[in-house]
Amino acid sequence: MAEMKYYELIKNPGMVALTDIPILDYHDFREQTIAIMKKESCHCVNYFIRQNTDHVDFYIIIANDSSHKVFVYSHRQKAEIKSLESITQECFQLHVFEREIYENTGIVFENHPWLKPVRYPFDRYDKAFKLSDYPFYRIDSEEIHEVGVGPIHAGIIEPGHFRFQCYGEKVLHLEIQLGYQHRGIENLFIKKNSLLQRCVISESVAGDTTIGHGLAFAQLAETLAESEWNEKLECERIIALEMERMAVHIGDIAALCGDVAYQIGQVSCEALRTIVINTMQDWCGNRFGKGLIRPGGTNYTLGNKILSFIAERLEEVHRRFLEVADMIFDDSGILARFENTGTISAKQVYLSGGVGMVARTSGTCRDIRESHPFQAYKEVKYKPVILDQGDVYARALLRKIEFELSFSVINELITRIEHLSDNLSFKPDYEMNFKPDMLCISLVEGWRGEICHVAVTDHEGKIEIYKIKDPSLHNWHVLALAVREQEISDFPVCNKSFNLSYCGNDL
After folding, report:
1. Under DSSP, is residue 453 helix (H, G, I), strand (E, B) or coil?
2. Homologous superfamily of the 7-121 domain (CATH)
3. Which one of 10, 109, 258, 301 has the fewest CB atoms closer than 10 angstroms to its CB?
4. Which CATH number describes the domain made up of 185-505?
5. What would the pLDDT profile of 48-104 be if each residue is shown by its tens digit?
Protein backbone atom coordinates (compact mmCIF):
# COMPACT_ATOMS: atom_id res chain seq x y z
CA MET A 1 0.00 0.00 0.00
CA ALA A 2 1.21 3.48 -0.87
CA GLU A 3 0.09 5.57 2.09
CA MET A 4 0.39 4.65 5.76
CA LYS A 5 -2.61 5.55 7.89
CA TYR A 6 -2.09 5.68 11.64
CA TYR A 7 -2.20 8.06 14.57
CA GLU A 8 1.22 8.99 16.00
CA LEU A 9 1.73 9.34 19.72
CA ILE A 10 4.90 11.20 20.62
CA LYS A 11 4.56 11.07 24.41
CA ASN A 12 4.65 8.22 26.89
CA PRO A 13 2.12 7.90 28.40
CA GLY A 14 -0.17 9.23 25.69
CA MET A 15 -3.80 9.19 24.66
CA VAL A 16 -5.84 9.62 21.51
CA ALA A 17 -9.53 10.23 20.90
CA LEU A 18 -11.21 7.14 19.46
CA THR A 19 -12.55 9.25 16.60
CA ASP A 20 -8.97 10.19 15.62
CA ILE A 21 -7.80 6.59 15.21
CA PRO A 22 -7.78 5.66 11.48
CA ILE A 23 -10.05 2.75 10.53
CA LEU A 24 -8.73 0.53 7.73
CA ASP A 25 -10.37 -2.33 5.89
CA TYR A 26 -8.76 -5.62 6.87
CA HIS A 27 -6.69 -6.02 3.71
CA ASP A 28 -5.03 -2.63 4.25
CA PHE A 29 -4.83 -3.21 8.02
CA ARG A 30 -2.98 -6.47 7.46
CA GLU A 31 -0.68 -5.13 4.74
CA GLN A 32 0.18 -2.02 6.73
CA THR A 33 0.98 -4.08 9.82
CA ILE A 34 3.27 -6.37 7.82
CA ALA A 35 5.03 -3.40 6.22
CA ILE A 36 5.63 -1.64 9.56
CA MET A 37 6.71 -4.79 11.38
CA LYS A 38 9.33 -5.59 8.73
CA LYS A 39 11.41 -2.83 10.32
CA GLU A 40 13.47 -4.25 13.16
CA SER A 41 13.02 -1.01 15.11
CA CYS A 42 9.26 -1.66 15.32
CA HIS A 43 7.46 -4.10 17.60
CA CYS A 44 3.88 -4.68 18.68
CA VAL A 45 3.14 -3.52 22.23
CA ASN A 46 -0.53 -4.54 22.13
CA TYR A 47 -3.25 -5.83 19.83
CA PHE A 48 -6.80 -6.36 21.06
CA ILE A 49 -10.47 -6.10 20.14
CA ARG A 50 -13.46 -4.09 21.32
CA GLN A 51 -16.78 -5.89 20.88
CA ASN A 52 -19.92 -3.88 20.14
CA THR A 53 -23.47 -4.99 19.43
CA ASP A 54 -23.13 -5.21 15.65
CA HIS A 55 -19.40 -4.82 15.00
CA VAL A 56 -15.93 -5.54 16.34
CA ASP A 57 -13.07 -3.03 16.46
CA PHE A 58 -9.48 -4.25 16.23
CA TYR A 59 -6.86 -1.92 17.74
CA ILE A 60 -3.16 -2.41 17.17
CA ILE A 61 -0.40 -0.43 18.89
CA ILE A 62 3.13 -0.54 17.46
CA ALA A 63 6.18 1.15 18.96
CA ASN A 64 8.99 2.49 16.79
CA ASP A 65 12.12 2.44 18.92
CA SER A 66 14.19 4.62 16.57
CA SER A 67 11.65 7.42 15.97
CA HIS A 68 10.41 7.24 19.61
CA LYS A 69 6.81 7.24 18.38
CA VAL A 70 3.87 4.89 18.90
CA PHE A 71 1.48 4.10 16.03
CA VAL A 72 -2.20 3.39 16.61
CA TYR A 73 -4.74 2.29 14.00
CA SER A 74 -7.76 0.01 13.76
CA HIS A 75 -10.01 -2.22 11.71
CA ARG A 76 -13.78 -2.57 12.01
CA GLN A 77 -15.85 -5.51 10.82
CA LYS A 78 -19.33 -6.92 11.27
CA ALA A 79 -19.80 -9.02 14.39
CA GLU A 80 -21.00 -12.05 12.44
CA ILE A 81 -17.70 -12.36 10.51
CA LYS A 82 -15.70 -15.06 12.29
CA SER A 83 -12.78 -15.62 9.95
CA LEU A 84 -9.77 -13.48 8.95
CA GLU A 85 -6.45 -14.12 7.24
CA SER A 86 -3.72 -14.41 9.86
CA ILE A 87 -0.96 -11.81 10.08
CA THR A 88 1.24 -14.22 12.05
CA GLN A 89 2.39 -15.91 8.83
CA GLU A 90 4.39 -12.76 8.05
CA CYS A 91 4.89 -11.33 11.58
CA PHE A 92 5.34 -14.18 14.02
CA GLN A 93 5.40 -11.98 17.13
CA LEU A 94 1.66 -11.39 16.62
CA HIS A 95 0.95 -15.10 17.16
CA VAL A 96 0.03 -14.73 20.84
CA PHE A 97 -2.26 -11.73 20.23
CA GLU A 98 -4.19 -13.54 17.49
CA ARG A 99 -4.47 -16.61 19.69
CA GLU A 100 -5.89 -14.50 22.52
CA ILE A 101 -8.45 -12.86 20.23
CA TYR A 102 -9.43 -16.28 18.87
CA GLU A 103 -9.82 -17.70 22.37
CA ASN A 104 -11.95 -14.80 23.57
CA THR A 105 -14.13 -14.18 20.49
CA GLY A 106 -14.10 -17.31 18.32
CA ILE A 107 -12.65 -15.35 15.37
CA VAL A 108 -10.50 -17.81 13.45
CA PHE A 109 -7.27 -16.53 11.91
CA GLU A 110 -6.85 -18.64 8.81
CA ASN A 111 -3.39 -20.14 8.21
CA HIS A 112 -2.20 -19.26 11.69
CA PRO A 113 0.57 -21.80 12.43
CA TRP A 114 -0.21 -22.23 16.14
CA LEU A 115 -3.83 -21.26 16.84
CA LYS A 116 -4.13 -22.59 20.39
CA PRO A 117 -5.70 -21.14 23.55
CA VAL A 118 -3.49 -18.88 25.68
CA ARG A 119 -5.13 -18.58 29.10
CA TYR A 120 -8.45 -20.46 29.25
CA PRO A 121 -10.19 -17.44 30.89
CA PHE A 122 -13.49 -17.98 32.65
CA ASP A 123 -15.32 -15.93 29.98
CA ARG A 124 -13.71 -17.57 26.93
CA TYR A 125 -15.80 -17.84 23.80
CA ASP A 126 -16.00 -21.64 23.73
CA LYS A 127 -16.33 -23.27 27.15
CA ALA A 128 -15.66 -26.61 25.46
CA PHE A 129 -11.99 -25.58 25.42
CA LYS A 130 -10.71 -27.47 28.47
CA LEU A 131 -7.27 -27.14 29.95
CA SER A 132 -6.95 -30.92 30.12
CA ASP A 133 -7.51 -31.12 26.36
CA TYR A 134 -4.70 -28.73 25.43
CA PRO A 135 -3.29 -29.89 22.05
CA PHE A 136 0.38 -30.38 22.84
CA TYR A 137 2.84 -30.77 20.00
CA ARG A 138 4.02 -34.37 19.68
CA ILE A 139 6.76 -36.20 17.84
CA ASP A 140 5.86 -39.76 16.88
CA SER A 141 8.95 -41.88 17.32
CA GLU A 142 10.01 -44.88 19.35
CA GLU A 143 13.24 -43.03 20.23
CA ILE A 144 11.64 -39.78 21.41
CA HIS A 145 10.30 -39.51 24.95
CA GLU A 146 8.26 -36.83 26.72
CA VAL A 147 9.07 -35.23 30.06
CA GLY A 148 6.35 -33.31 31.85
CA VAL A 149 7.06 -30.78 34.61
CA GLY A 150 4.29 -29.16 36.69
CA PRO A 151 1.82 -27.65 36.97
CA ILE A 152 2.34 -28.58 40.63
CA HIS A 153 5.95 -27.74 41.46
CA ALA A 154 8.11 -28.97 44.29
CA GLY A 155 8.95 -25.44 45.44
CA ILE A 156 6.84 -22.39 46.17
CA ILE A 157 6.06 -21.37 42.63
CA GLU A 158 3.06 -20.52 40.50
CA PRO A 159 1.36 -23.13 38.31
CA GLY A 160 2.73 -23.78 34.86
CA HIS A 161 3.30 -26.91 32.79
CA PHE A 162 6.40 -27.66 30.70
CA ARG A 163 6.25 -30.47 28.14
CA PHE A 164 9.64 -31.55 26.76
CA GLN A 165 10.21 -33.70 23.69
CA CYS A 166 13.63 -35.29 24.20
CA TYR A 167 16.03 -37.52 22.33
CA GLY A 168 18.06 -39.01 25.13
CA GLU A 169 19.11 -36.02 27.24
CA LYS A 170 18.76 -33.55 24.37
CA VAL A 171 15.68 -31.29 24.22
CA LEU A 172 14.18 -31.18 20.73
CA HIS A 173 11.12 -29.14 21.63
CA LEU A 174 9.61 -27.48 24.68
CA GLU A 175 6.01 -26.34 24.91
CA ILE A 176 4.97 -24.14 27.83
CA GLN A 177 1.34 -24.21 28.92
CA LEU A 178 0.03 -21.64 31.35
CA GLY A 179 -3.54 -20.53 32.08
CA TYR A 180 -4.24 -22.20 35.42
CA GLN A 181 -5.09 -19.23 37.61
CA HIS A 182 -8.08 -17.53 35.90
CA ARG A 183 -7.63 -14.34 37.91
CA GLY A 184 -9.60 -12.04 35.60
CA ILE A 185 -7.32 -9.10 36.42
CA GLU A 186 -8.26 -7.04 33.35
CA ASN A 187 -11.98 -7.39 34.09
CA LEU A 188 -11.42 -6.12 37.64
CA PHE A 189 -10.13 -2.82 36.27
CA ILE A 190 -13.50 -2.43 34.57
CA LYS A 191 -15.72 -3.65 37.41
CA LYS A 192 -14.02 -1.76 40.24
CA ASN A 193 -14.98 1.91 40.16
CA SER A 194 -12.68 2.96 42.99
CA LEU A 195 -9.35 4.35 41.82
CA LEU A 196 -7.72 3.08 45.01
CA GLN A 197 -9.01 -0.44 44.32
CA ARG A 198 -7.52 -0.28 40.84
CA CYS A 199 -4.19 0.81 42.31
CA VAL A 200 -4.14 -2.23 44.58
CA ILE A 201 -5.06 -4.51 41.66
CA SER A 202 -2.27 -3.06 39.50
CA GLU A 203 0.25 -3.90 42.22
CA SER A 204 -0.87 -7.55 42.05
CA VAL A 205 -0.51 -8.11 38.29
CA ALA A 206 2.94 -9.59 38.95
CA GLY A 207 3.98 -9.55 42.59
CA ASP A 208 7.70 -9.15 41.90
CA THR A 209 6.95 -6.09 39.73
CA THR A 210 4.74 -4.15 42.14
CA ILE A 211 6.35 -0.80 41.32
CA GLY A 212 6.50 -1.42 37.55
CA HIS A 213 2.83 -2.30 37.09
CA GLY A 214 1.70 0.17 39.75
CA LEU A 215 3.50 2.96 37.91
CA ALA A 216 2.07 1.89 34.54
CA PHE A 217 -1.45 2.26 35.93
CA ALA A 218 -0.79 5.48 37.87
CA GLN A 219 0.60 7.39 34.91
CA LEU A 220 -2.19 6.06 32.70
CA ALA A 221 -4.83 7.33 35.16
CA GLU A 222 -3.11 10.71 35.40
CA THR A 223 -3.02 11.02 31.61
CA LEU A 224 -6.71 10.14 31.21
CA ALA A 225 -7.57 12.71 33.87
CA GLU A 226 -5.17 15.30 32.38
CA SER A 227 -3.64 15.58 35.83
CA GLU A 228 -0.26 17.18 36.46
CA TRP A 229 2.49 16.12 38.83
CA ASN A 230 5.80 17.69 39.75
CA GLU A 231 9.42 16.79 39.14
CA LYS A 232 10.00 15.53 42.66
CA LEU A 233 7.25 12.92 42.36
CA GLU A 234 8.72 11.73 39.04
CA CYS A 235 12.15 11.33 40.64
CA GLU A 236 10.74 9.44 43.63
CA ARG A 237 8.89 7.03 41.36
CA ILE A 238 11.99 6.20 39.33
CA ILE A 239 14.06 5.73 42.49
CA ALA A 240 11.48 3.15 43.58
CA LEU A 241 11.44 1.49 40.15
CA GLU A 242 15.23 1.19 40.10
CA MET A 243 15.32 -0.11 43.67
CA GLU A 244 12.90 -2.83 42.58
CA ARG A 245 15.21 -3.62 39.66
CA MET A 246 18.25 -3.81 41.92
CA ALA A 247 16.54 -6.12 44.40
CA VAL A 248 15.31 -8.57 41.76
CA HIS A 249 18.61 -8.64 39.88
CA ILE A 250 20.51 -9.50 43.07
CA GLY A 251 17.93 -12.16 43.91
CA ASP A 252 18.14 -13.66 40.44
CA ILE A 253 21.93 -13.92 40.62
CA ALA A 254 21.46 -15.66 43.97
CA ALA A 255 19.09 -18.15 42.34
CA LEU A 256 21.50 -18.77 39.46
CA CYS A 257 24.29 -19.44 41.95
CA GLY A 258 22.02 -21.88 43.76
CA ASP A 259 21.35 -23.79 40.55
CA VAL A 260 25.06 -24.35 39.96
CA ALA A 261 25.77 -25.16 43.64
CA TYR A 262 27.76 -21.99 44.39
CA GLN A 263 26.43 -21.48 47.89
CA ILE A 264 28.56 -18.54 48.99
CA GLY A 265 27.30 -16.52 46.03
CA GLN A 266 23.72 -17.57 46.70
CA VAL A 267 23.55 -16.69 50.39
CA SER A 268 25.55 -13.48 49.99
CA CYS A 269 23.25 -12.17 47.26
CA GLU A 270 20.15 -13.23 49.18
CA ALA A 271 21.36 -11.23 52.19
CA LEU A 272 22.03 -8.15 50.04
CA ARG A 273 18.62 -8.38 48.37
CA THR A 274 17.08 -8.41 51.84
CA ILE A 275 18.81 -5.11 52.65
CA VAL A 276 17.35 -3.47 49.52
CA ILE A 277 13.78 -4.63 50.11
CA ASN A 278 14.00 -3.80 53.82
CA THR A 279 15.07 -0.31 52.80
CA MET A 280 11.93 -0.12 50.68
CA GLN A 281 9.94 -1.16 53.75
CA ASP A 282 11.58 1.60 55.79
CA TRP A 283 10.44 4.02 53.10
CA CYS A 284 6.79 3.00 52.61
CA GLY A 285 6.01 0.17 55.04
CA ASN A 286 6.11 -2.68 52.51
CA ARG A 287 9.16 -4.59 51.26
CA PHE A 288 7.77 -4.79 47.71
CA GLY A 289 6.65 -1.17 47.56
CA LYS A 290 2.91 -1.73 47.85
CA GLY A 291 1.12 1.51 48.63
CA LEU A 292 3.97 3.69 47.35
CA ILE A 293 2.84 4.50 43.79
CA ARG A 294 -0.46 6.36 43.64
CA PRO A 295 -2.07 8.64 41.01
CA GLY A 296 -1.48 12.34 41.53
CA GLY A 297 0.88 12.09 44.49
CA THR A 298 2.23 9.91 47.28
CA ASN A 299 1.70 9.22 50.97
CA TYR A 300 5.43 8.54 51.41
CA THR A 301 7.33 11.53 50.11
CA LEU A 302 11.11 11.45 50.36
CA GLY A 303 12.37 13.86 52.99
CA ASN A 304 16.06 14.55 53.63
CA LYS A 305 16.28 11.94 56.39
CA ILE A 306 14.92 9.01 54.36
CA LEU A 307 16.87 10.19 51.28
CA SER A 308 20.12 10.01 53.24
CA PHE A 309 19.13 6.63 54.68
CA ILE A 310 18.41 5.17 51.22
CA ALA A 311 21.67 6.54 49.85
CA GLU A 312 23.70 5.04 52.72
CA ARG A 313 22.06 1.61 52.55
CA LEU A 314 22.39 1.35 48.78
CA GLU A 315 26.02 2.45 48.93
CA GLU A 316 26.70 -0.45 51.30
CA VAL A 317 24.82 -2.92 49.09
CA HIS A 318 26.64 -1.63 45.99
CA ARG A 319 30.06 -2.09 47.56
CA ARG A 320 29.36 -5.55 48.94
CA PHE A 321 27.55 -6.80 45.83
CA LEU A 322 30.43 -5.88 43.50
CA GLU A 323 32.80 -7.89 45.71
CA VAL A 324 30.53 -10.95 45.50
CA ALA A 325 29.91 -10.43 41.77
CA ASP A 326 33.65 -10.41 41.07
CA MET A 327 33.91 -13.78 42.79
CA ILE A 328 30.98 -15.19 40.83
CA PHE A 329 32.10 -14.05 37.39
CA ASP A 330 35.71 -15.07 37.98
CA ASP A 331 34.81 -18.64 38.93
CA SER A 332 35.67 -21.04 36.09
CA GLY A 333 33.17 -23.65 37.28
CA ILE A 334 30.31 -21.16 37.14
CA LEU A 335 31.38 -19.83 33.75
CA ALA A 336 31.50 -23.38 32.38
CA ARG A 337 27.81 -23.79 33.29
CA PHE A 338 26.72 -20.34 32.11
CA GLU A 339 28.59 -19.86 28.85
CA ASN A 340 26.98 -21.21 25.66
CA THR A 341 23.99 -22.49 27.61
CA GLY A 342 20.51 -21.50 26.50
CA THR A 343 21.68 -19.33 23.63
CA ILE A 344 19.21 -17.28 21.60
CA SER A 345 19.90 -15.10 18.58
CA ALA A 346 18.85 -11.56 17.69
CA LYS A 347 16.70 -13.01 14.89
CA GLN A 348 14.82 -15.28 17.30
CA VAL A 349 14.20 -12.30 19.60
CA TYR A 350 12.97 -10.17 16.69
CA LEU A 351 10.62 -12.85 15.36
CA SER A 352 9.23 -13.63 18.82
CA GLY A 353 8.87 -10.01 19.90
CA GLY A 354 11.25 -10.52 22.82
CA VAL A 355 11.67 -7.56 25.16
CA GLY A 356 13.71 -6.37 28.10
CA MET A 357 16.86 -8.16 29.24
CA VAL A 358 16.11 -11.08 26.92
CA ALA A 359 16.41 -8.72 23.95
CA ARG A 360 19.31 -6.68 25.31
CA THR A 361 21.46 -9.79 25.88
CA SER A 362 20.94 -10.92 22.28
CA GLY A 363 22.11 -7.80 20.48
CA THR A 364 18.74 -6.03 20.33
CA CYS A 365 18.38 -2.57 21.87
CA ARG A 366 14.88 -2.64 23.31
CA ASP A 367 14.48 -0.48 26.40
CA ILE A 368 11.53 1.85 27.03
CA ARG A 369 13.71 4.03 29.28
CA GLU A 370 15.58 5.16 26.16
CA SER A 371 13.15 4.59 23.26
CA HIS A 372 9.98 5.99 24.90
CA PRO A 373 11.17 7.74 28.10
CA PHE A 374 8.69 8.23 30.92
CA GLN A 375 8.67 10.13 34.22
CA ALA A 376 12.18 11.29 35.24
CA TYR A 377 13.79 9.31 32.39
CA LYS A 378 12.83 12.21 30.13
CA GLU A 379 15.63 14.15 31.82
CA VAL A 380 18.03 11.37 32.81
CA LYS A 381 20.43 10.56 29.98
CA TYR A 382 20.10 6.79 30.21
CA LYS A 383 21.95 4.54 27.76
CA PRO A 384 21.16 0.79 27.78
CA VAL A 385 23.96 -1.77 27.72
CA ILE A 386 23.62 -4.29 24.90
CA LEU A 387 25.30 -7.72 24.94
CA ASP A 388 25.22 -10.16 22.05
CA GLN A 389 26.13 -13.59 23.47
CA GLY A 390 22.48 -14.46 24.11
CA ASP A 391 23.32 -17.16 26.69
CA VAL A 392 22.85 -17.68 30.43
CA TYR A 393 26.17 -15.92 31.05
CA ALA A 394 24.99 -12.80 29.22
CA ARG A 395 21.68 -12.75 31.09
CA ALA A 396 23.52 -13.08 34.41
CA LEU A 397 26.15 -10.48 33.52
CA LEU A 398 23.56 -7.94 32.38
CA ARG A 399 21.93 -8.18 35.80
CA LYS A 400 25.23 -7.10 37.37
CA ILE A 401 25.65 -4.27 34.86
CA GLU A 402 22.06 -3.04 35.23
CA PHE A 403 22.44 -3.15 39.02
CA GLU A 404 25.27 -0.64 38.67
CA LEU A 405 23.26 1.48 36.22
CA SER A 406 20.31 1.52 38.62
CA PHE A 407 22.61 2.60 41.45
CA SER A 408 23.92 5.44 39.28
CA VAL A 409 20.43 6.60 38.28
CA ILE A 410 19.22 6.56 41.90
CA ASN A 411 22.17 8.67 43.04
CA GLU A 412 21.55 11.17 40.26
CA LEU A 413 17.88 11.47 41.20
CA ILE A 414 18.63 11.81 44.92
CA THR A 415 20.96 14.71 44.11
CA ARG A 416 18.32 16.25 41.87
CA ILE A 417 15.67 16.08 44.62
CA GLU A 418 18.07 17.71 47.09
CA HIS A 419 18.55 20.67 44.72
CA LEU A 420 14.95 21.16 43.60
CA SER A 421 13.60 24.64 44.18
CA ASP A 422 10.02 23.30 44.04
CA ASN A 423 10.15 20.54 46.64
CA LEU A 424 6.41 20.36 47.31
CA SER A 425 4.65 17.04 47.89
CA PHE A 426 1.20 16.09 46.64
CA LYS A 427 -1.19 13.61 48.20
CA PRO A 428 -2.83 10.94 46.00
CA ASP A 429 -5.97 11.95 44.13
CA TYR A 430 -8.59 9.19 44.09
CA GLU A 431 -11.37 11.39 42.66
CA MET A 432 -10.02 11.74 39.13
CA ASN A 433 -12.49 11.89 36.25
CA PHE A 434 -11.34 10.30 33.02
CA LYS A 435 -11.83 11.83 29.58
CA PRO A 436 -14.56 10.05 27.57
CA ASP A 437 -14.04 8.13 24.30
CA MET A 438 -10.27 7.92 24.61
CA LEU A 439 -7.59 5.28 24.16
CA CYS A 440 -4.65 5.71 26.55
CA ILE A 441 -1.30 3.89 26.44
CA SER A 442 1.24 3.66 29.26
CA LEU A 443 4.65 2.03 28.80
CA VAL A 444 7.12 1.28 31.61
CA GLU A 445 10.44 -0.56 31.52
CA GLY A 446 10.08 -2.96 34.42
CA TRP A 447 12.99 -5.11 35.53
CA ARG A 448 11.88 -7.90 33.14
CA GLY A 449 11.22 -5.52 30.29
CA GLU A 450 8.43 -3.65 28.59
CA ILE A 451 5.15 -3.31 30.51
CA CYS A 452 2.14 -2.00 28.60
CA HIS A 453 -1.19 -0.88 30.07
CA VAL A 454 -3.97 0.30 27.74
CA ALA A 455 -7.39 1.69 28.67
CA VAL A 456 -10.38 2.57 26.48
CA THR A 457 -13.06 4.82 27.98
CA ASP A 458 -16.73 5.01 27.02
CA HIS A 459 -18.98 8.06 26.47
CA GLU A 460 -19.11 8.72 30.22
CA GLY A 461 -15.37 8.38 30.84
CA LYS A 462 -15.67 4.94 32.44
CA ILE A 463 -13.12 2.27 31.62
CA GLU A 464 -14.65 -0.03 29.01
CA ILE A 465 -11.56 -2.05 28.10
CA TYR A 466 -8.35 -2.58 30.06
CA LYS A 467 -5.47 -4.49 28.49
CA ILE A 468 -2.22 -5.43 30.20
CA LYS A 469 0.91 -6.87 28.65
CA ASP A 470 3.63 -8.14 30.95
CA PRO A 471 7.00 -8.75 29.23
CA SER A 472 6.62 -12.47 29.97
CA LEU A 473 3.89 -12.72 27.32
CA HIS A 474 6.57 -12.58 24.61
CA ASN A 475 9.53 -14.00 26.46
CA TRP A 476 8.02 -17.38 27.41
CA HIS A 477 8.28 -18.39 23.76
CA VAL A 478 11.90 -17.21 23.65
CA LEU A 479 12.66 -19.46 26.64
CA ALA A 480 11.20 -22.42 24.74
CA LEU A 481 13.59 -21.67 21.87
CA ALA A 482 16.57 -21.23 24.21
CA VAL A 483 16.47 -24.83 25.50
CA ARG A 484 16.39 -26.51 22.09
CA GLU A 485 19.43 -28.73 21.53
CA GLN A 486 20.33 -28.34 25.22
CA GLU A 487 20.54 -31.11 27.78
CA ILE A 488 17.34 -31.23 29.81
CA SER A 489 19.44 -30.94 32.98
CA ASP A 490 20.33 -27.39 31.88
CA PHE A 491 16.71 -26.31 31.90
CA PRO A 492 16.63 -25.10 35.55
CA VAL A 493 19.55 -22.70 35.15
CA CYS A 494 18.23 -21.58 31.77
CA ASN A 495 14.77 -20.99 33.24
CA LYS A 496 16.25 -19.00 36.15
CA SER A 497 18.21 -16.81 33.75
CA PHE A 498 14.88 -15.69 32.24
CA ASN A 499 12.86 -15.68 35.50
CA LEU A 500 9.55 -15.08 33.75
CA SER A 501 6.21 -14.46 35.43
CA TYR A 502 3.45 -17.05 35.42
CA CYS A 503 0.82 -14.68 36.78
CA GLY A 504 1.99 -11.85 34.53
CA ASN A 505 1.08 -14.06 31.58
CA ASP A 506 -2.00 -15.62 33.21
CA LEU A 507 -4.15 -12.52 33.62
Report:
1. strand
2. NADH:ubiquinone oxidoreductase Nqo5 subunit (3.30.460.80)
3. 10
4. 1.10.645.10
5. 999 988 999 999 999 999 999 999 999 999 988 899 999 999 999 999 999 999 999
